[in-house]
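User: Continuing from earlier, I have the next pair ready.

Assistant: Great, send them over.

User: Here they are, in order.

Assistant: Folding the first of the pair now:
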Amino acid sequence: MAVSQLNAPLCASPPVPTVGIRHINLPHNDRFVVVGNHLAQHDRLSLTAIGLSVHIQSLRSGTRISVKKLADRFPEGEDRISDALNELERYGYLRRTRVRLPSGRLITTTESFNNPPAMRIRVPGQAVPVTAPVREAPPPAVEPPVPDPVVGPEPVPLPQQPCPRPRPATAHPTPTPARPVPATLLADLRRHDPRLLLSERDIGRLAPAVDVWLERGVAPDAVRRTLTAALPAGELHRPAGLLRHRLTELLPPPLPAAPHAPPGPVPDVRRLRPRVPRARAGAVQRLRAGRRPRGVVTAGDALMLGRTMEGADVHNVGRSST
């Protein structure tokens, strides 16, 4: 009989679960979105901002998103969603721009970036630089041999005339283009409060809202006082968000149309008729009755009688007087 081997290897033990999470991954064939670890493991974004960014990246292009629509979709409130959108905008995952339509209406365009560290965000309207292909330099051209110069008689030197000295060109300073009033007003806020230091990007977003205030008849000094009055004490973490809130919530209504002045009273024409002297009132009555007035009527009397009587003919009065 064969001797039994007691040193045979034992059966493999089942896998022992390690400490921490275990991933059970299955491939996705449809309805999925690719998210980078730079977003999923961001060390400064809040969990609400990370989840909101994933939700926005999963939406189709053209889907309308706003604070109210997202608050209706998720249990978080409008304030929490607004703070999450501001976080994504600060770290380059979101960009919101106020655009004025030809009709005068202001709309907000939203752009989502899935990989800000690797994507260069270019300014709208700026062309993408194209690198031209490197071409090999052509071989140097062989110069033909130059013949030796023919030695001839030396030329007679002519008297040199003094050349006019060129006048130095007057350097005209390049005029600096003037900034629009809304942008100037926003950039000047840091002089009144150093905490209201805004970037060029924030000024470009807030300028359309300031323009609406100016179009409604509000003076620039009044807009400045509204933005700088009663600021909270301490450091302002998001001055642009504070100014956007004030420009939106404290927007005054448009000025009503100026009332038209009521028309004045119509004068009574009957009171403007001239009074006829008593001495000539009888003559007027005799002319109306067809009788000839007493005495001789002069041309001045006839003219006065013609103005005071209705329908009297001056020429007939002149004929009757002669």
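And the other member of the pair:
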Amino acid sequence: MKNLKAYERIGLTVILIAMFLSFPKPQSIAKYWMNTYTSFSFFTIPTPDNLDLKTTSTNTIKVALLLDTSNSMDGLIEQAKSQLWKIIGELSNVQKGEDSPNLEIALYDYGNDNNSILKGYVRQLTPFTTDMDLVSEKLFGMTTKGGNEYCGQVIYTSLTDLDWGNNENALQLIYIAGNEPFDQGNMPFEKSCGMAKQKGIMINTIFCGNRKEGLNSGWLKGAQITGGEFMNIDQDKATVYVTTPYDQDISQLNDQLNTTYIPYGEQGATYSSNQRKQDANAATYSIANKAERAAFKSSKKYKNDKWDLVDAYEKDKKVLKKAKVLPKELAGKSEAEIASMIALKKAERTAIQAKIKELNAQRKTYKKAQSKIKKDSTNLENSILLSIKKQAKKKGYKIEE
């Protein structure tokens, strides 16, 4: 400012003060600086070509599942396992305008005597993750034992442990399921739910048992604090699948899809093995359930760039220089040769996914024709999906049919 004239210094000082008073966020200050000050003839700031002040899409869906794993909850865990891919599949269809939001899921269990008493019998199985194979793995590893179910504590823990961020555009949901009074434990649920409300997180409560009992034991009030939904389910009701003429073909295409992945890195082979293991877990319930999983694997939400060279290369071409462990079939090959192999696998994957999507569309049409009865809201899957449709709409999201 030494070379500026007095009136120029005064003018600039006034503008700077107004800027800092009006824009408390650093990014807003930067935008204002670049958009406003460059227009003053007496003071010109060169704008670097590589300075990008635009923010990327921030539409995100974050769902925390808090499941009671005390002795009486075997049925709940079975429903979660058998309905996981239907739930995730529907979540993958949530859109906001033309944008396909990021999907992250976290998983907790509570009320299990195997968990630490110092943590209120609460355990985080996975933080927010886009790795749905990991979510499936942890869910299938759940067992039930004991019974000290502290709803206020598990909600509080999920609020303080997880990275919820500070994004007003995000759809942030907690689903807590159990069958004991909502007010047990030292952490008042009113406090936990109040914290969630302040963060813009909706809590949905799923009481496993008689609706009247759930209403009288705090589960309704817990949901009402954040504007969430109260639901009740019969946790012992077995999942009913609608099998279709397309399930077998989709299952076979799923197996072909797995051959298009090129595991790399120290844990690549482990992740690849887990991918197939979760296919097998889904198939233990029915081929229709495996088809649900395959449909999700054909979506944009199913990405494995941390272990699959095809996804990793699409994300960052420099991965070939960074990767320390490559599969044996790529040993001794040049970067150009590896890139060519990746391109072939990518083309093959895209073609298989397109076939799965086509068959799955026919599968959905067939299922709608067979399902003449109104959806049963007394199971975990439909309770979650019905509430998500309502709450997504409030935030400007919608589920593509």
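Worth noting for the second one:
The CA atoms of residues 18 and 401 lie 49 Å apart. The longest strand covers residues 60-68.
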